[in-house]
Sequence to fold (269 residues):
Amino acid sequence: MSEKVKLKLKEEPNSKAYILTSSIIILSMFIWSLTAVQGKDTSSGGFTIARNIISGIFHPDMSLLLNFTKQGVLYMLLETICIAFLGTIIGAIISIPLSFLASSNIVPVPVSLATRFLIMIIRTIPSLIYGLMFIKVTGPGPFAGLLTMSFTSIGMLTKLFSDTIADLNKSILESLSALGCNTFQKIRYGVIPQLKPNFLSTTIYRFDMNLRDATTLGLVGAGGIGSPLIFAMNSYRWNQVGAILLGLIILVLIIEFFSTKIRTKLVRG
Fold:
């Protein structure tokens, strides 16, 4: 080993104590967390149900999967996509003005803090709670799921949109001002081109998340494919469960493929 390498190693801070302490803390938390996991209630019936679910996935009810009526998997998947898409669009539209109000480099600090506090409250409530609340207001169905997707989208999108606005390159706006551009022209040529790729990429990512959340919301009666899924499971119709899960897996893979492609193109230009 050369002298330069030895000197470099001596200059490096000794982090062994930090690593050891962190490892002990993480291991202690892991062991403590295991105390909350109880497997004593697991019975042979549970393993039988798990085996039946796996068997149903590999032997799906093709008549349900290829059914083009309102009781078929394809129609239920289309309803789930519509709930997720409309919820994302409505949430994104509302999030744009809120994100500007939450940006301290655009509005006064008190306004920014008040908006951020509102968004924090919206983000704190889980989507299932929103679903149960809206079901009580509008009744079970896709409309309750649409309202839930919209509210959950507002919390996340406003937060990410405001972070993007905070990173605006102000030198571009200063250059446009030097050229004599008015406010509309500065927004058109200086602000929108900077925000558009990130805004679209974030919205597509949120749609990807909403598609999965819309499936979960169906379990509480907020429309989508989750409702027939839980009905089939409660009825022990595992072939139908397999057909629904198979259709859902294929849909998520397709959406994931295209959303990743589009977001990558938007970010890289």
Remarks:
- Residues 183-217 form the longest helix (35 residues).
- The domain at 61-268 is CATH 1.10.3720.10 (MetI-like fold).
